[in-house]
Amino acid sequence: MGAARSCAEKPWCLSPACDRDGQAYLDLVTAIPSHGHCGAFDEEVIEVECPAGAIFPETLQNLKLLDRHFLVFCGTSNLVALRWVLRFGASSNSHDSNSTTGLHVACRSGSSSVVLELLRYRQPLDRADVAGWTPLHVAARMSRCSIVVLLLKAGAPIWVRNSHGELPSDMCLDGATHAAFASFQEYLLSGSGISAATWNFYWDKPEAEDSEAPLPTPFFTPQHPIANFRGHKEAVSIGTRIFNVQPGYGIAFIRAAGLVHDYPRSSSKFLYQDSINRKALESKVVSEIDEIRGLNLKSDIGSAEALQHLMVSVLCLHHHLHELRNDMDFDSWKTLQGSTLPNSDHIPGDLLYKIWRVVRKEPIPQLEVPGLTGLPPEEEVQKTMPEEVPWLLGLPSMQGWVNVNTPGHAVGDPTGRLWASACLGLLFFSLSPGAAAPEAFMSLSGVFPSWDGSCIVLEKWRNFDGKNAESSPPAGSLVTVALLKPDGSWKECSFQKIELGIPSTGNPQSWLKYLGAMENTRSWV
Q: ANK repeats at which positions (predicted)?
């Protein structure tokens, strides 16, 4: 990749953006010529990094935790969580080290409801990042036509150029966004409008981003388990314990661990054991609050995304009431659930009121999140929780807090902290030692643990000859983790390696013993 040759060498190039001192720049975010017409390159390299609304862990390091959460949630559609973070004390004017604001981030992700919420806080529409990109530049480059329309109606400047001399309208990559800019400029030149807010735009040609997402894999589609513990008594006991408290996670575990064949009939036979608590399969009717269930609940919630947002809001409400010891009346909580967009998912007030009553009545241990009370997670657990997870009671295991990292990802809370439990050649991950069920687990079969001086590295391949340290691992040598879901399904995730950071009070040698030396781990294959 190199610098583009002067557009003067190409008289057929008609792009107005080519007039940049005879050079065409590359936008490394999209990896295409930013003006879209010229594409010849020579040997010289010109690297111009444009954040384009993206945030990264290294650009958020100097921010407070709540301000980091604010920018992260600006990049999602979870409006309720964003409102809670602002209520907890995050600054709406936060920006990362590249001067990327929350509005920049929201314009990249494309959530109209989040953009409208940020506009309520009077986010500056002309604020530019280190590359001179305004939020309108970001929305145009990412083909967020609906966001472009919102920004133009709110008064976003259209004549501001970035450090490459580009206007927002120069960065359009799709027909809808280009048509929106053309319509707006025509509206301004006509002089018929009093203000930008009275301009209207409608595009009747669907774009690719409007296509439906693929449906999730149904339960009856067989998946290959990540381990084979069929007939293993201790593993059956673990699966039973998990099922008796959290049936969905229990079914997901017995399927992913290979305790049953991945068919409904095989899972049903497992549930006929005498040790299974059949009451866990029955619906519990709480007459006191007249619980809404089944199709009525599905109809009231509206979508899986709305349910996810509601669950996050319930956790924040519990934290606000019982851990921060602040009161919140029902109207205030209901307002947090309101949408900024018409015709969006709307949860009935009577359902919200029943949830608010239950959460406000008394603390619910299952809704407590370790680390949110201000105490270090280890100290908090010692005061309120047992020292081992309930599904491994009586079995030899190694347990404790670890920081879990994978290449390019952090798992668990923002610091990557999870409670890990090694037992029977399995490594479980949960949010706390008091959790009723694991969030994920992995098989240690064929996995090689090692200590690199700062953390334990789990990987399935090593270059034992030491001659070529940069050798790439062969196919099929990835470490696999099963993420358990409450609906009885599970998702398989694979990584080149997993790093476990052990606290200073921990003993890496004890962990290595339970994770297995190389000779022991091969015995599980």
A: 131-163
As to burial, measured by CB atoms within 10 angstroms (0-12 exposed, 13-18 middle, 19+ buried), residue 238 is buried
CATH number, domain 386-522, options 3.30.365.10, 2.60.120.620, 2.30.29.30, 2.60.40.290: 2.30.29.30
Structure tokens at 428: 């479980």
Sign of dihedral through CA atoms 185, 187, 190, 192? negative
Residue 354, classed as helix, strand or coil, is helix
Residue 131 in tokens: 């590359």
Asked if residue 74 lies in contact with residue 55, where contact means CB atoms within 8 angstroms, the answer is: no
Percent helix, percent strand, percent coil in the chain, to nearest 5 = 40, 10, 50
Cα separation values, 68 from 324, 396, 409, Å:
20, 39, 16
Q: Are 501 and 405 in contact (CB under 8 A)?
A: yes
Could you give the percent of the chain with pLDDT greater than 90? 18
- Left if phi > 0, otherwise alpha if psi is -120 to 50, otherwise beta: which for 299? alpha
Cβ distance 107 to 100 under 8 Å?
Answer: no
Lowest-confidence pick of 69-78, 102-111, 381-390, 411-420: 381-390
Considering the domain 57-205, what is its CATH architecture? Answer: Alpha Horseshoe (1.25)
How far is the C-alpha of 260 from the C-alpha of 248, rounded, in Å? 15
Measuring CA to CA, which residue among 247, 354, 220 is closest to residue 300? 354
pLDDT of residue 439: 92
Buried b (16+ CB within 10 A) or exposed e, 484-506: beeebbbeebebebbbbbbeeeb
198-223, pLDDT tens digit by residue?
A: 788 877 655 444 333 344 444 456 78
Which of the four pLDDT bands, split at 50, 70 and 90, describes residue 30? very low
Identify which has the larger pLDDT, 192 or 116.
116
The answer, yes or no, to whether residue 345 has pLDDT greater than 80, is no
Neighbours of 250 (CB within 10 A): 27
The answer on pLDDT for 411 being more than 60 is no
**Reported confidence tier of residue 343, pLDDT bands at 50, 70, 90:** low
Contacts of range 406-411, beta carbons closer than 8 Å, 24 or more positions apart: 406/495, 406/496, 406/497, 406/498, 406/499, 407/495, 407/496, 407/497, 409/495, 410/57
Q: Which residues pair with 490 in a beta bridge?
A: 484
CB-CB contact of 384 with 395 (8 Å): no
What are the residue ranges spanned by the domains of the chain? 57-205, 294-362, 386-522
Helices 233-245 and 247-256 pack at an angle, to 10 degrees, of 150
Q: Which residue has the tokens 């009121």?
A: 353
| pLDDT attached to residue 244 | 86
Indicate the pTM of the whole model.
Answer: 0.53
Rounded-to-integer distance, Cα 338 and Cα 500, Å: 40
